[in-house]
Amino acid sequence: MDPDAHxxxxxxxxxxxxxxxxxxxxMLLGNVLPANIKVSAxxxxxxxxFQELGICVTHSNTEVVCGSDVVFVAVKPHLIPLVLTExxxxxxxNQLIVSVAAGVTIAALEELLPEDSAVIRLMPNLPCQVQxxxxxxxxxxxxxxxxxxxxxRLLHCSGLVEEVPEAWIDVHTGLSGSGxxxxxxxxxxxxxxxxxxGMPSALAHSIASQTVLGAAKLLRDxxxxxxxxxxxxxTPGGTTIYGLHTLEQGGVRASVMSAVESATxxxxxxxxx
Length: 273
Known about the structure:
The protein has an 8-stranded mixed sheet with strand order 3-2-1-4-5-6-7-8, sandwiched between helices. Helix 7 (167-177) crosses helix 12 (252-272) and helix 8 packs across helix 9. By secondary structure, the chain is an alpha/beta fold. The radius of gyration is 21 Å and the shape is elongated. The chain has helices spanning 18-29, 47-52, 61-66, 80-87, 106-112, 145-155, 167-177, 179-196, 201-222, 226-233, 239-249, 252-272; strands at 11-14, 37-40, 56-58, 70-73, 96-99, 118-123, 133-139, 159-163. The longest helix is centred in the last third of the chain and has 22 residues, at 201-222.
């Protein structure tokens, strides 16, 4: 495929969940036309939001595959065998198949698809919906560099996009896919701490979200190590070092590391099922 031709590429999504919606929104902010995107789902529950963007919808997975140059398979991991078995006979070597299913390996995907299929395994995260996602992908055995270049161009408005060895994809799932929820839990706890100390709930949650946003932006844009930024906030005998001491007593560092480890292991278990 010509990676420069993506405005004319026909894009299909099997599955209409949050990941598909976030990726599709990012494409529209590039120069992919709504008329060149089609989404399928078994029910109409999630299709309305795609229609509001001018995207074509259907209940037929086969229709999506037959009318697309790039097919994103964005269904739950346990549905991958069923879905790919259904559409496999309609897939050609000229199409690019991109799986967004957590834990499902390239080997498993290629086993379910025609022999010459170009496959890419992609793992995005929820902030794709606001074009601040972290998206990692790995090329299958038949996928070429130009396929990766095409995917990058399709996703460039969705956030950070990086090609990595497949072994890192499950780690990314634990770090960033699940990590989003870990950050939300921390933001919730920040707000609840302020509420406990007398601040109104709405204001506390607003400040907590802005605190997380500002800290993340400074971390990304400064290029500094988190420990360096943390040290810059701490003054000897000040409020921050007292608070950090309490967090360390609660084992927050070890708990977060263990959470990433647990989520990564779960992603690997899903891939073995």
